[in-house]
């Protein structure tokens, strides 16, 4: 059988996933935070015509796959792309490419620079061997377009609004903008119900009188989430972590996962097995309460 001679594990580590068709592989290419420049897109299109079937597949995690690459062409296909700075995507027991939305560089609702956060995380952790797989997502605001709650480590931009009462004229624009019913105008002054507020900042954007400002901008962190056969919602940690806290928690989470996990165990299962208290103690964090 020809299959017995194929080193599937080595191919997978380079991003080649065996197809149901014999001798065919889907070449997964790494895309960080969903952005690719035009030159790289053209090179990938050329590779799809030369080595694949003339099309690409965009995965649910913002990666590009070129299906129908023959085994004998695999090495040449990826080498050509690597020369242009395009590398194979991670598969198997590795840290996957970071998924991110456009954040505050493009989106009107963005509160943090998702692209920059994703770039830093990617440089530090992409492709690292882990007990199972580890997925990270960065989303720019509580609309959560890239679903950070479904990732092993999810990051979501947040902002805490502050009312400057002396500027408030009671116009209710903030009340209309808030989809959570968290801000009300009472006796001609805005008032925020912190139990209902999800830190989205829509009220700040709506106010024309400088009566609302960002008191603090940061990130809500989710850990231990996953999609798939046994979906699990990530546990919400700090509501407004600054960059230093964020990267400290991320690094400690990696250390904890590498040190404590059984082979083949996802981060969420590890947290369940050893208890959330142990995890929180390790990363020096308390569960999310208000913000
Ligand atoms: S999560 Fe927020 S910032 Fe990101 S794309 Fe969605 S609405 Fe825009
Ligand atoms: S939009 Fe601004 S000025 Fe108008 S009620 Fe809200 S806080 Fe006050
Ligand atoms: S930050 Fe968002 S949820 Fe909170 S009061 Fe403003 S609009 Fe409402």
Automatic annotation (TrEMBL):
Annotated family: Belongs to the nitrite and sulfite reductase 4Fe-4S domain family.
Q: Where are the transmembrane segments?
A: none
What's the protein name?
Sulfite reductase-related protein
Q: Which domain of life is it from?
A: Archaea
Q: Which GO terms describe its molecular function?
A: 4 iron, 4 sulfur cluster binding; heme binding; metal ion binding; oxidoreductase activity
Domain 4Fe-4S ferredoxin-type, first and last residues per copy: 159-187, 188-217
Task: List keywords of the entry alphabetically.
Answer: 4Fe-4S, Heme, Iron, Iron-sulfur, Metal-binding, Oxidoreductase
Q: Which PANTHER family match?
A: ANAEROBIC SULFITE REDUCTASE SUBUNIT C, SULFITE REDUCTASE [NADPH] SUBUNIT BETA-RELATED
The UniProt entry, under SUPFAM superfamilies, shows: 4Fe-4S ferredoxins, Nitrite and sulphite reductase 4Fe-4S domain-like, Nitrite/Sulfite reductase N-terminal domain-like
One Pfam family here:
NIR_SIR
- Quote the Gene3D superfamilies the UniProt record gives: 3.30.70.20, 3.30.70.3340, Sulfite Reductase Hemoprotein, domain 1 (3.30.413.10)
Tell me which species this is from: Methanosarcina horonobensis HB-1 = JCM 15518
